[in-house]
Amino acid sequence: MGLACRPHLPFRAWEPGQVAELPDLKSFVDSHERLFVLTGAGCSTDSGIPDYRDAGGLWKRPPPMDFRSFMDYPLRRARYWARSMIGWRRFGAARPNAAHFGLAELERRGRVALLVTQNVDGLHEAAGSRRVVDLHGRLDQVRCMQCGLLRDRGAVQGELEQLNPRWHGLEADDAPDGDADLEGMDFSDFGVPPCPRCGGILKPDVVFFGENVPRTRVEEALSGLRRADAVLVVGSSLMVYSGYRYVKVAAQAGLPVAALNLGRTRADDMLTLKVAQPCTAALAWLMGPGLLPGATGPQASAALVARS
Ligand SMILES: [Zn+2]
């Protein structure tokens, strides 16, 4: 069944001031058999991976480097890899939290048509989710931009550390996407390994700003949306178009959309239901006890928004 031939469902816009509780979210999840789940950075913050945006949807920090800068300027590339070498130690060691485990459990119960994530940390797969589209790629893989060779990020990390012993002991604050703050450093002597096969430029296999999401991934996600009867957004402000587009398509087709997100989302006016709770606590509560050790319930009276 395609999106176009669905009967138009009654659509309720979000009205600020009204309260949506977690039980409302539970009813939403329980009353739809095949969810298209869309996740973002808010899903991974409790795994120690920082978020890009604040509760108002604005940048907390300068936007990440774009594709052309990376490809055209060796010094900027060195800066990227230096920051990434430091950031990877924590990023590569991040473990899934109750939000990832909860969504994996939802899939095991046969309720997930497809999970599409904007995150590049691979934590949904680590938690056991199988039907996953990594919209923006995976940071644990590195690709040669010339010959396409795909390498394990861990192996490249070893080479980076071998080439740059002086940078070894540096500490820096973690930043999103395995990045780290290393402002004010001279990156001209930072060694970046070339592709071992052809000598080409190695780039993390993630979609940089200024790059397009590969068409096959877009199509795979759209096909998942066609199999779904509702959309559940978890921990995304939907400010990036590559994720927002699916909510837009869903809303236009009359599919109900619920969002679990602490801040404003770009699609607030399209939501059937919005719950402003931390993803980890909410998913732990939603999927019941025993999800993982130490999972806690939600603060029932926390400030919640929305439902008409
Ligand atoms: Zn190559």
Q: Which compounds are bound in this model?
A: zinc ion
The CATH homologous superfamily of the largest domain is called TPP-binding domain
Principal-axis shape equals elongated
Oligomer category: single chain
What count of structural domains?
A: 2
Residue fraction in strands: 5-15%
Structural write-up:
By secondary structure, the protein is an alpha/beta fold. It has 2 domains: 3-49 and 96-136 and 213-287, 3-Layer(aba) Sandwich (Rossmann fold), CATH 3.40.50.1220; 67-93 and 139-206, SIR2/SIRT2 'Small Domain'. The protein is 30% helix and 15% strand. It is built from 9 helices and 11 strands. The strands form 3 sheets. The chain has a 6-stranded parallel β-sheet with strand order 3-2-1-9-10-11, with helices on both faces. Strands 5-4-8 form a 3-stranded antiparallel β-sheet. The chain starts with 21 loop residues before the first helix and ends in a 21-residue tail after the last helix. Mean pLDDT is 83; it is low at 4-14 and 293-308. Bound molecules: zinc ion (ZN). Zinc ion (ZN) binds at residues 144, 146-147, 149, 195, 197-198, 200. Residues 144, 146-147, 149, 195, 197-198, 200 line the site of zinc ion. Its cofactor is Zn(2+). This is NAD-dependent protein deacetylase. It is an enzyme of class 2 (transferase).
